[in-house]
Each structure stands twice: as C-alpha cells, then as structure tokens.
Design a protein that fits this description.
alpha+beta; 4-stranded antiparallel sheet; 3 helices; 4 strands; GYD/TTHA1554; GYD domain-containing protein
C-alpha cells in the first residue's frame, strides 16, 4: 500500500479548533477520514516550526490521497503537502529499469 508523508500547517481558524478539541480529537478525525478510504495512519506527530503536524499514512492508491487532500484543503483550516514515500526495494527496482534519455542540448 503506498505511503505518504503529510506535512500540515493550521490556519488561525484551524488552530482555534485544535485548542478547543485537543490533539486526541484531531487524531480521531484523521483516523476516521483515512480509514474511511481504506487507509491507515502509521504515525502522527505535532511539531514546532513551519509545520504544525507531520503524519505517515498508507492509502490504497494515489487517488484516495488526492481525495483527502482536496477535501481537507477546501475546509480552509489547514494547508497540507503530501509526499509519496518510496521504499528501498522500489528504488532498487527503479535502478534496474533501463531508461532512454537525452539531456537537453546533448
């Protein structure tokens, strides 16, 4: 199942909601959304700095990740970035594939 790194930053409205319901409330909401599309939350951490939250989630496919991303962003309470995570075995497979490529100007 594909894994994604989610980095999220709350807007001021989202932060007010977090203060009202707490971190465990957000965890429940995230788990409900992810599991509703056949996924699983592997890890969820609150952070300091540019991002307020980082997560690793598994989804059956990229379309499920896109559906969640669009819905969450439409709420206006959080900005997110989703990065696909590639396993070492997948990179080894990629290295074995032959790619025909001509560099610009070559």
């Amino acid at each position: 199942m594909p894994k994604f790194l989610i980095q999220a930053s709350y807007t001021s409205e989202g932060t007010k909601g977090l203060l009202k319901e707490g971190a465990s409330g957000r965890r429940e909401a995230v788990e409900q959304v992810v599991s509703g599309l056949g996924g699983r939350v592997e890890a969820m951490y609150f952070t300091f700095g540019a991002d307020d939250l980082v997560m690793i989630v598994d989804f059956p496919d990229a379309v499920s990740m896109a559906a969640v991303s669009l819905t969450v962003k439409a709420s206006g309470t959080v900005q997110t970035r989703a990065t696909p995570l590639v396993t070492l075995d997948e990179i080894d497979e990629a290295v074995r594939r032959e790619v025909s490529f001509r560099a610009a100007g070559a």
